[in-house]
Design brief:
mainly alpha
């Protein structure tokens, strides 16, 4: 393919690609702003559940490691 034709098609494709993503982002952002409250509540609930689950997992792991450490080292752990 001659380079002039390639550059022309490449530039046209880049312009179309950029315009498509720009308009899609604009319209999806507009739709997101109308559903923002519902999404924010759902994300906050998911974050709360994830934090609670991590706290439970860390506590369980801490207790298991304490038992292992007490078995490995004689005497009280401080």
């Amino acid at each position: 393919m001659p380079w002039r034709r390639f550059v022309t098609y490449n530039a046209a494709g880049g312009i179309v690609w950029a315009a498509t993503y720009t308009f899609a982002s604009y319209y999806l952002g507009d739709a997101f702003s109308s559903a923002e409250t519902t999404i924010s509540v759902a994300l906050a609930a998911a974050a709360a559940v994830a934090i609670a689950a991590m706290m439970v997992l860390v506590r369980r792991q801490y207790q298991k490691l304490t038992v292992i450490a007490e078995a490995a080292i004689q005497g009280p752990l401080t």
